[in-house]
Amino acid sequence: MSLDWVCPRCKGVLDTRAGAYHCQGCDSQYRDFVGIPDFRLGYQEFDSHVALAQRFHREWDRLTYEQMVRLRWSGLRERHLQRGGDPCALKTWDADEESFLASYRTRGASHVQVLRALIQEVQGIMPVQRLVDVGCGWGRDLIHLTTIAQSVLGVDVCSFSLLMTKKLLEEQQVTNVELALAQGEYLPLRPASVDAMNCSATVEHFPDPGLFLREASRCLSPNGWLFLYYPNRFSLLPETHTGIFGLGWLPRKWQQKVVAKTRRQNWDTFLFSRRGFMRMLQSQFAARQVRISGIPEGVENFMFTSKFANMLGPLAKPLKACLSLSRRIPGGERVMSFFAPVHFAAIAHQ
Predict the structure, then answer these.
(1) In this structure, is residue 255 part of a structural domain?
(2) Nearest-angstrom CA–CA distance, 50 and 213
(3) Which domain does 332 fall in, by range?
(4) Would you say 161 and 135 are in contact if contact means Cβ atoms under 8 Å apart?
(5) Which of 10, 80, 98 is nearest to 307 (CA)?
């Protein structure tokens, strides 16, 4: 991508000195993590995440990408059961490495199909030179985003996730991707330096989602676009992170208590309604055009080759047929979108 990094704190010029980055403006120092620049600002990783990254690095030549996936999510299952979690509860789909492996193989391609359809509705086909995948995780979407951009930057806060992505890129022999440890609210990028930004199922986890939107607006070039999706607060299906029906319909202060009691975990996820997201977007992002839908073209493949199908069971096939039918009925898409589990948004920058 041949990027000139800037300081994520003050946006000053960075000097590279023996694997480290020094800001001329605020005198901040940033290190290099096994070939990946680390621009995180005071971010503290969980000890278990650090240990996993160290293991991946230590056993790099022996482990394959799929083995890394299994190591990551078999550990989730074990920790869930150690906390006394019900092995038959809906939460277990989120701790099953087989589900995550299936998602890696299928979801990324379906995600890009949805993305293409939304972009075409907003502003037509546009050549993308530089694309940033914020919250790229373990690369299941990023590997397919390389087909629509000449160069891609993958950004995440977790070191083990970027090592997984690095292994995937190595195995697939992909050469047009750079990786960086950074927070979405503090990107080490120059103003108007990228043509497109993808943020899949990540914006709801930011401590300050509005700050991320402001940063995305700063980094995007004129007529660039931002693509993201987020869990819909008013979904009639189980909430995508916990598997709890009706969680978003509760007052926000009650959501934490319900998740803590039923899932024995902390709840730091922000569930957006369409209206709430639009209100935040209008105050933080210089948007020229916005398209939000819960059932965009291609969403059937995205939803029903992933964990959603496992959650819905026998209802998956009838619901899939209803999605296609609702697009042909006047007002049907808006009604279905109101109750959809996630909202997809394509936002054209001014």
Answers:
(1) yes
(2) 28
(3) 43-349
(4) no
(5) 98
193 and 219 in contact (C-beta within 8 Å)?
Answer: yes
Give me the count of residues in the chain.
350
User: Quick one: tokens of 331?
Assistant: 């007002």
Provide the 3-class DSSP secondary structure of residue 332.
Answer: helix
User: What number of CA atoms fall less than 13 Å from residue 180's CA on the CB side?
Assistant: 27
Q: Is residue 91 part of a domain?
A: yes
CATH number at 85 reads: 3.40.50.150
When divided into structural domains, the chain yields a total of 1
Between CA 74 and CA 90 the distance in angstroms is 16
Assess if residue 52 is contained within a domain: yes
Supply 45's token pair.
């990783």
Q: Tens of pLDDT along the chain (350 residues)?
A: 556 899 999 999 998 876 789 998 999 999 999 999 999 998 999 898 999 999 999 999 999 998 898 888 776 666 666 666 665 554 554 545 566 666 666 677 777 778 877 777 766 656 689 999 999 999 988 988 888 899 999 999 999 999 999 999 999 999 999 999 999 999 999 999 999 999 988 999 999 999 999 999 999 999 899 999 999 999 988 888 888 899 999 998 899 999 998 887 888 899 999 999 999 999 999 999 998 988 887 777 766 655 566 666 677 777 777 777 787 788 888 888 888 888 999 999 99
Rg, Å, the chain Cα set: 20
Assessment of whether the complete model's pTM goes beyond 0.90: no
Distance of alpha carbon 142 from alpha carbon 133, whole angstroms: 7
Q: Detail the DSSP E strand segments found in the chain.
A: 14-17, 20-23, 29-30, 32-33, 36-37, 130-134, 151-156, 177-181, 194-200, 220-231, 287-293, 342-349
Q: Please report whether residue 254 resides in a domain.
A: yes
